[in-house]
Write a structure and sequence with these properties.
Layout: H1 2-17, H2 20-38, H3 74-110, H4 112-126, H5 130-141, H6 145-171, H7 175-182, H8 187-223, H9 235-242, H10 251-278, H11 280-285
Helix pairs in contact: 2-3, 2-10, 3-4, 3-6, 3-8, 4-6, 5-6, 6-8, 7-8, 8-9, 8-10, 9-10
Domain ABC transmembrane type-1: 82-271
Subcellular location: Cell membrane
Membrane topology: Multi-pass membrane protein
Length: 286
């Protein structure tokens, strides 16, 4: 089996190395991830320490991106903000994957009343944006990073459920599924052994796209005060704090704004590249 799969993997690796969207997206995503990981062990300064005497300093050898209105090092805040954005996005996507995919697979396998009930419940959840869910959670538990993760994760559940349902439903009519039924396999075993592996590439691509949307959602929630709370740095809150200083120090808004744009662009490019590489129809066209 490994000998027959090796040529396919080599072809995939060759195509990946020749795919500019995938390479650029992967490079940007790796840089952001490396910056986030580096912040656990090193930052130029402590991003939570206030130093009013050094407030609004321009970029220098000591503070590469300058300081904000409270004297905090902007580069250090950006590095720690990457941890916040990536952590919230990954956990939120994990919630969506862990709940949405099984629900979609269940609806496709059962169909009938069970499948209809599952999909209508997903439609109901999908009607509530992450912002509304975050406001509800704040009123119950208060604002915070955990509530932001849960709010974005709940919003991701119907996204993955719809994707799994739409991808799995036509697979149940394929010949290999009929052969599995004849062999005496039950619905659960068929789902795990045949349905899920054949739709895994779609799930991976969608997860990458939802990661980029998670970065945007986290920034939006932090911007309005529903996400990560002080003193933990957040790109969204940096934008909120900089909005009154646009005329005096526009870099305070430009730097976190560019960080969000570049991160989202990198993840979107990575998702587009993965779609092109993993979709068999696009692979044949190439």
């Amino acid at each position: 089996m490994s000998a027959t799969m090796a040529p396919g993997r080599r072809r995939l690796a060759i195509r990946a190395l020749g795919h500019p969207s995938f390479l650029l997206g992967a490079a940007i995503s790796l840089v952001v991830a490396a910056m986030a990981l580096l912040s656990f062990v090193w930052t130029p300064h402590d991003p939570t320490v206030l130093d009013i005497a050094r407030k609004l300093q321009p970029p220098s050898a000591t503070h590469w991106l300058g300081t904000d209105q409270y004297g905090r090092d902007v580069l250090s805040m950006i590095m720690h903000g990457a941890v916040t954005s990536m952590a919230v996005s990954f956990v939120a996507v994990g919630i969506g994957l862990g709940l949405g995919v099984p629900l979609g697979l269940l609806a496709a396998a059962q169909r009938g009343l069970v499948g209809e009930a599952v999909m209508r419940a997903n439609d109901f959840v999908f009607a509530f944006p992450a912002l509304i869910i975050a406001i509800m959670l704040r009123d119950i538990f208060g604002p915070g990073a955990v509530n932001a993760m849960v709010a974005i994760g709940i919003f991701n559940v119907p996204v993955f459920a719809r994707l799994a349902y739409g991808a799995a439903l036509p697979l149940w009519t394929r010949e290999f599924v009929m052969a599995a039924r004849v062999a005496g396999k039950g619905g659960g075993l068929i789902t795990l052994e045949h349905i899920l592996p054949n739709m895994l590439s779609l799930v991976i691509v969608q997860a990458t796209i939802q990661l980029s949307l998670g970065v945007l959602a986290e920034a939006a929630l932090s911007y309005v005060g529903l996400g990560v709370q002080p003193p933990a740095p957040s790109w969204g809150r940096m934008l909120n704090e900089a909005q009154t200083l646009m005329a005096l120090a526009p870099r305070l808004a430009l730097v976190p704004g560019l960080a969000i744009v570049v991160t989202v662009m990198g993840l979107n490019l990575l998702g587009d590249g993965l779609r092109d590489l993993l979709d068999p129809r696009l692979a044949r066209e190439r």
